[in-house]
Amino acid sequence: MGKRFWSWVMAALLVGLPTVPIHAEGYRTSVGEGASEIAVVVVSGTPYEMGRSLGELMAPEARALIGKFLGMVQADGSPRFSNEALDAAWTATAPYTHERFKEELRGLAEGSGLSLETVRRAHMVPVVSNYSCSSLAAWGAATKDGHLYQTRNLDWILAAGAHDYPCIVVYRPDRGIPHVNVSFAGYLGVNTGINARGIVLSEMGDSPQRDYPYNLDGAHFTTMFRDILYDCGTLDEAINLIKNTRRIKKYHYVVGCGQPPAAVKMRAHAPDLEIWTDNDPTDELAPNILKHVVYQDEGRGAFEPLRSAWGRIDADVLREISCQIPIRGGNVLSVVYDATARHMWVSYARGEEEAYKRPFVHVRLDDFLRDEVQIGAGSAIK
Predict the structure, then answer these.
(1) Of 365, 347, 367, 366, nearest to 357 (Cα)?
(2) Exposed / middle / buried, residue 279 (Cβ in 10 Å: 0-12, 13-18, 19+)
């Protein structure tokens, strides 16, 4: 094993955190305490090696989640989530999915003891599902310190129980930018994440039930987001990657960058793509627009608190606003990022208690992203 792996392990041991190393280069630790504890898995190497390490380190949870998840969505016999439909979704999207993602899936399957077929099917459920979420981003003069702050509310299928298997995955690839996926055990796609260059990603789903069956001849956002985190170090690079991707379905994206702080909002209704900067009179939400702010909340009341807090927005303010606007009954995950200082605050639902009602756990991303890792337990806050 490499020197970097052992430096990670020794750093964890020195501060007294439990660490579970496996034969590949990776380890498992956690942030938060008690009912707010969240598994953190740090992996490095090739895509296959990282997938295998993740599979081994989260094997019990990955097997439990994927089994429960597929069982739940297929319980009523809906053709939408049948094995045939999920296999067809993979066949349609695979030509537009990066080979490294496929290799990571293969490693995950081997490491967890699941079949590759089962792992692929689980990853296709979000491809054929509906989402309804929200995101806020503020920076520059709008914030207390000029930093880029961004939120992500994931409002999805609470009954699926994915939130009961929380997992933050830190990737240190042999080729590409180190990045973080705020995810669930055994799930490699990105609903939200941040990389070491401060690129942060949020998504909101717009494809209604009536649009099903969807045209899936392209890349899903969850794999496209992984590509952005791997390859993009600037906001312009992230925008260009999205422009040049053959996209599917209807989504909104908020894409931010911590250095220099800025963000854009996109309405990505394939094949069309509209991009708005801050205070843009063409923004779909105009006249409810602000300088150095972009957001999408589907009209759930974010504008007035954003306007009231303008000039002093920070993580606390955005956390409070984000907890006011989720879809009640489906708020699986809420995240607030300081993309400039590379901090985040994470809340997963637990059981039937939704994320907006629960404590947020503070994670210092540099503890895991920089070369000399210093691991510290996160603290839960309300």
Answers:
(1) 347
(2) middle
Q: What are phi and psi of 198, to 5 degrees?
A: 90, 10
Structural domains in the chain (count):
1
Find out whether 238 and 259 touch, Cβ atoms under 8 Å.
no
The answer to whether residues 162 and 332 touch, using CB atoms and an 8 Å cutoff, is: yes
| Whole-Å CA distances, 9 to 20, 34, 60, 189, 375 | 9, 23, 22, 26, 9
Distance in angstroms (rounded) separating the CA atoms of residues 369 and 241? 23
Q: Are 177 and 359 in contact (CB under 8 A)?
A: no
Quote the domain boundaries for residue 261: 3-381
Distances (CA, A) of 374 to 193, 339, 366: 21, 19, 8
Residue ranges in the chain whose pLDDT is less than 70: 1-24, 371-382
Quick one: pLDDT at residue 203?
96
Which CATH number goes with the domain that contains 100? Answer: 3.60.60.10
CA distance 197 to 238: 11
Cα 196 to Cα 369: distance, rounded to the nearest angstrom: 6
Question: HSE-up of 340 (CA within 13 Å, CB side)?
Answer: 18
The string over 234-255, giving b where at least 16 C-beta atoms fall within 10 Å of a residue's C-beta and e elsewhere, is ebeebbebbeebebbbbbbbbb
Residue-wise pLDDT tens digits, 36-94:
999 999 999 999 999 999 999 999 999 999 999 999 999 989 999 999 999 999 999 99
* End-to-end Cα distance, the chain: 40
What integer pLDDT is reported at residue 15 of this predicted model? Answer: 39
* Residues 6 or more apart whose Cβ sits within 8 Å of residue 208: 130
Q: What is the pLDDT of residue 376?
A: 35
Confidence at residue 378, expressed as pLDDT on a 0 to 100 scale = 41
Distance of CA 351 to the CA centre of its chain: 20
The pTM of this model reads 0.91
Identity of residue 333 = L
pLDDT of res. 132: 79
CB contact at 8 A, 212 and 80: yes
